[in-house]
Structures are given as C-alpha cells and as structure tokens.
Design brief:
The protein has 253 residues and is of the alpha+beta class. It has helices at 5-26, 96-105, 132-150, 159-173, and strands spanning 48-55, 58-65, 68-75, 80-83, 86-88, 90-93, 116-129, 182-194, 199-200, 207-208, 210-222, 228-231, 239-240.
C-alpha cells in the first residue's frame, strides 16, 4: 500500500496548529463590565443554555431554570442584564468578614493554591412567590445569571439541591402554599477567590493569577417567617484571567 507522506505531514501540522489555537483560546477571558457575558457556565440543571443572538453587544439566550425556559438578555454596552424583561442588579463589594478571616490566618503562610479572598458580588432577589417551587426557581434564576455573567465554570449548584434546602426551611418555619403572592426580599452572594500567587499558564513562561468562585450563599425574607439564610459550600473550578472582574481591589491587595 502506498503511503502518502506529504498528506500525512499536512494533516499532522493541522492537528498541531489546532492544539496550539485551543490552548490560546483557553486563556482568553473577557474583562467584565457591570454585566458583560462570559463563556457558558455549567450549573447542572439550572443552566441549560442556547445562545440565539449576538449582535451589537446584545446577547440573547434561552436558559432553563428547573423545568422552565426563560430569556436572558445581556447588554454589554449599557452594562445591564434582564431575565424575562426584568432588570437584574449585580453589585460588587468587599465582605470584610472574609477579608479579616484571611488576615487572621496569615496569607503569607498559605500555599500557592490555598484560596485568598478577592471580592464578592450580590444578585438581588425581589419576586412575588406562592409556593416552595417558585422560591427555588427564583433562587435558581439568580444563580444562573451569576454563573452566566461572572465567569466560566463559576458556580455548580443543582436545582434539586436548592429545592431541598428551601423545602427544609419551609418545613422548619411552617410554610405551606401562600394564598396570595408575597414578595421575597433578599440576595445571592457569590464570593471570588484567587490563588496565593501567580501560576504558570504553560504559554511561554507567562504567569497569571487563577480565580474561582466558592461558598455561594442565599438570604431572603418572606412575609413574617424566619429569614432563609444558607451557604451552599460549593467550589467552582480555577480559571485564568488577565484582569479580575470589577477591578476594585483594595489598597492593601
């Protein structure tokens, strides 16, 4: 059988170039403005997503939260995000308790992959609900938006886990089905951490910090029931970034 060495060489070259291109793309992370989109983020059943449009910085996606489909629109020019037409507010801030925990532990004594607190973000919760399922869907929607907006592989919390925790709370406070809709008022907090030093990217000796999100927490008040206050203890994957999202680092950062 005749062996076409030239054709084999061309195919091998294309394969190598593709591997190099994929490595470069893996390190390309968009700098986020207030609500800039990021890569698709896996949050189990909360985040099945299909991008429909990406024109003039308007990103329209269909996201599945629980068993329902919703429309998420992210406008990178106006720095806004809306879910089913309702604007979603995302606020960056520092959690002084987490900052002080780092200082107490002694950051300098940590290993390079021991997480160091960087900053936090809040997604407001303000919806009329009547059932436990609706509460879980509202929380799942907030987590989905946080995952879509903040980073790839950021948040991994299933709809089933959210529903389970809400059901436990509802049983504890004696909440059944409300006769009329009541407003749940609260927020979801996402905490961003970085490595305790820059790490090798594998690209020509370049070093960057890696970032991840962990310990997502949810707090809300509903009618006259005891507030829901739970931390999920989730841990996202590390990812590279040239700049962290919302560059508002403190002076002693």
């Amino acid at each position: 059988m005749f062996f076409d060495f030239k054709k084999y060489s061309e195919m091998r070259l294309l394969y190598v170039l593709k591997k190099i291109l994929n490595s470069v793309l893996a390190l390309t992370v968009p700098v986020l403005m207030l609500s800039a989109p990021a890569s698709y983020v896996h949050a189990e059943k909360n985040n099945i997503s299909t991008e429909q449009s990406d024109k003039n910085n308007i990103h329209v996606e269909t996201v599945t939260i629980g068993n329902e489909e919703h429309t998420l629109i992210i406008d990178t020019t106006a720095n806004t995000a809306t879910l089913d037409g309702k604007e979603v507010k995302i606020t960056p801030f520092f959690d002084e308790t987490l900052r002080n925990d780092d200082k107490a532990q002694g950051v300098s004594a940590k290993g390079i992959y021991d997480p160091v607190y960087y900053m936090s973000f809040k997604v407001d919760l303000d919806e009329q609900v009547t059932t436990i399922g609706e509460i879980a869907t509202v929380i799942g929607g907030g987590i989905t938006i946080g995952a879509k907006v903040l980073s790839k592989l950021a948040i991994k919390i299933s709809h089933e886990k959210i529903l389970s925790k809400v059901a436990d709370w509802a049983t504890y406070v004696g909440l059944g089905t409300l006769a009329v809709g009541k407003s749940m008022d609260g927020y979801i907090q996402f905490n961003q951490y970085r490595t305790n030093g820059k790490v090798q990217t594998g690209m020509g000796g370049k070093e960057l910090y890696q970032y991840r999100f962990q310990d997502t927490s949810v707090y809300f008040k509903l009618f006259n029931f005891k507030p829901f206050d739970h931390q999920f203890n989730d841990v996202g994957d590390w990812f590279y970034a040239e700049k962290p999202y919302f560059n508002v680092a403190s002076k002693d950062e």
